Amino acid sequence: MNNNSKKLVGIALVILAALLAILFVRKFTKPVEEFIPGPTSGKLVIRFLDIGQGDSELIQLPEGGWILIDSGDRGKPTSALLKKYGVNELALIIATHPHADHIGEMRDVMRAFQVKEFWDAGFTNSATKTYTDMLAEIKQHGIKLATPKQGETRQFGDVKIEVLHPSTNFVDDNPNNASVVVRLTYGSKRFLFTGDTEVAAWKEMLAAEPEKLRADLLKAAHHGSSNGTTKEVLEAVQPAIYTISCAVGNDYHHPHSKVVDLLRKNSNLRVYRTDLEGTITAVCDGNSIEMSSEREAARNQLYATGDEVAGNASNHTGGDGGMGSGRRGGKGKR
Ligand SMILES: [Zn+2]
Fold it and tell me: Ligand 1: distance of its center to the CA of 163 in Å?
């Protein structure tokens, strides 16, 4: 064999090894989870949908039926995700407050699915077009509309929903503080959904009935902002699981370093993040909660601030924000 032939055989062997490696990786790697239960599984399934910067939580009731809390921003794939998870109609939609990252996709959701009932915070000060469009859509479909207040409860089969905020007397100019806060209870497990509540709303809830805030799972208020989770909040809720809904490279620095510091100090708390792990799923049989996520993230990454994750992501992706979530235009409170 001359030198050229040897080179050709060498190159062929390298190509063959690369092809075998690709085949091996394809065969032996698979996504972290995909639990899609039947319509009446006897389990409460809550999905924290990965819709970029914003909130959207899809709840599948143990005896069948669906509830949606918030929809994510306009243009997000919420309806497609709802279809993927088997939604045919929604027993209830809760719009926590009228910011676009929570209600932007509501109109499309109402066009895609039959909706029986709609809860809205009723915060009509400085109503945006997104908000008035949402109200018009509710009216057009003849959906029953309510503005729930602190103290109200509703039973969906074995799942109880308690409204913890706002009270009838609560007044605040900030739409985030008008967020409808609900606690779901199934068996011995409780789940707290907080919208974008900030300090003033928490102050009222902590003063009213702090024991009502106790929950096994806490959805971080306001995407992990420093005004949404404080030491007092964690002490009152005492969660075992903490979920953050936000996007890589968000302009709001979510989650904030103060929150991340609190989480690091709380070693019993398991943290889940949609920006790093995609859609997060909690499955509850009434006695225990099983968590899973679309993607795996390194444990130390889960305790990185929004800015640190954005920095890391831009190092890996050439500065485009990375991981499909994109950077948002515009600043301000959301
Ligand atoms: Zn928000």
Answer: 19
